Amino acid sequence: MYFLSLFWVAADGLFAQLATHLSIQFQILANEIRYMHPTANNSPYITARISERLKKIVQDHLELFAYVKLLEKMYNPLLFATILVNGIDLCTCLYSLQFRLDEANWGDVERNLVHAMSILLQTSMFCTFAQRLNDEIAGVHAAAYDFPWTDFNMPIKVLILLIMIQTQQEYVYSAYGFLHLNMPQLTTILSAAMRYFTLLRSVT
């Protein structure tokens, strides 16, 4: 049991670390685009440098997105099972908590509260880090949209257009493409748990 718990915590921590690292990399790409400004005289040398940087950004974005897909593939089974089980577990935990409160069994009440809080913490951790990753990926598109492309020559305009096309589709981190991980999903999970808890109370 100890090693299983250790593995679970390590897997959760690794997801948080990888998602944070990818988020920061996407944020760096967005900042690189935002900090490109035309000069008083756009010399061929400066224009060529900006063009090379934009080409590198396109390549880096494709590479980072491949890593995001790899992260999804690695964590699909774990996240899908965790979110599903946590929703059911939270419902039954609240149901048990109700009976312990009625019995004034404060020892079990404390254990149930700790259990419920740990479930909420784990679920919110996954949704929070996935939401940040979603936001930073969308930030690259926003940075390209705000780029002063009208002040540059045609090759740079084409590169900016390519970045905008490449990033225009909204990305939402998901498990198997079925269970989205973001803050609205966290609200949905809590709402579903409370609905089933209410249903259990009504039939018992």
Automatic annotation (TrEMBL):
It is found in: Cell membrane. InterPro entries: 7tm6_olfct_rcpt (IPR004117). It comes from the Eukaryota. Keywords: Cell membrane, Membrane, Olfaction, Receptor, Sensory transduction, Signal, Transducer, Transmembrane, Transmembrane helix. It is a multi-pass membrane protein. One of its GO terms (cellular component) is plasma membrane. Pfam families: 7tm_6 (PF02949). This is Odorant receptor 67a. It comes from Fopius arisanus. The lineage of its organism: Eukaryota, Metazoa, Ecdysozoa, Arthropoda, Hexapoda.
